[in-house]
Amino acid sequence: MWTSWASSSSRRSRRSRASRVPSPAPLSTSRIRFRWAPVLLAPLALLPAACGDGAVEVPVPHPDAATRRLCEGLRLPAKVHGQSLRDTKPDSQLTAAWGSPAIALRCGVPIPAALRQTSELVDINGISWFGQPVDRPVTWTAVGRQAYVEVTVPAKYRPAGDVLIELTPAIKATIPAKPEGQI
After folding, report:
1. For 24, how many CA atoms within 13 A lie in the half-sphere containing its CB?
2. Residues lower than pLDDT 70 in the chain
3. By the 8 A CB rule, do 56 and 77 touch?
4. What contacts 6, CB < 8 A, 6 or more positions away?
5. Distance separating alpha carbons of residues 95 and 159, to the nearest angstrom
């Protein structure tokens, strides 16, 4: 049932009189409006950032034309690890992001500088992933493919393997493997 502010105020006043507790002095609405507005509205200004509504800044890689075509064909899921797909800025078919903090994907990145033939890789459903930094990976790169795909997974979404499992089918379906032995 809907109750107007005035009627609930009247009930409150009657209860106050019945309990013999003096009611507070009326406040000036203009004083409330201007004095408390910054305090009351400040959390609302943070709401879009906290909810992840704005576009996420993800640097766009600059691959060659063949790699760009492969990456543009990548069909990514609408949700990863329960997080919805977000816009990226600058807008590019080579980048994607989910959630807040953002799980960020970049397709067509250069080969990771630290990657060696002897580097430890994690194999997830037929895709080899190279994690950096080695002691506690945050950024994972799908290697052994004709395009390198980099995924940054914030600590909030641990274990990172769950995120990589969800992205593996799209990468596997779109970006062909390199010949055996090539990373």
Report:
1. 5
2. 1-53
3. no
4. none
5. 22
Residue 137 pLDDT = 76
Judge whether 156 and 101 are in contact, CB under 8 Å.
Answer: yes
Confidence at residue 34, expressed as pLDDT on a 0 to 100 scale: 34
Place of tokens 């430890």: 120
DSSP code for 145: B
pLDDT on residue 172: 97
Contact 104, 96 (CB under 8 A): yes
Residue 161, token pair as written in the block: 């393997």
Q: For position 157, what pLDDT does the model report?
A: 95
139 token code pair: 């950024």
* Amino acid sitting at position 17: R
7: left (phi over 0), alpha (psi -120 to 50) or beta: alpha
Please tell me the distance from the alpha carbon of residue 32 to that of residue 25, in angstroms, as a whole number: 13
pTM: 0.71
Name the one residue in this structure whose structure tokens are 């997080």: 83
Q: What is the pLDDT of residue 53?
A: 64
Alpha helices in 19-80 (DSSP H): 29-51, 65-72
Look-up: residue for tokens 């201007």?
Answer: 34
Q: Are 99 and 54 in contact (CB under 8 A)?
A: no
Which pair of tokens denotes residue 141? 């790169």
Number of residues in the chain: 183
Is the distance from CB of 49 to CB of 79 less than 8 angstroms?
A: no
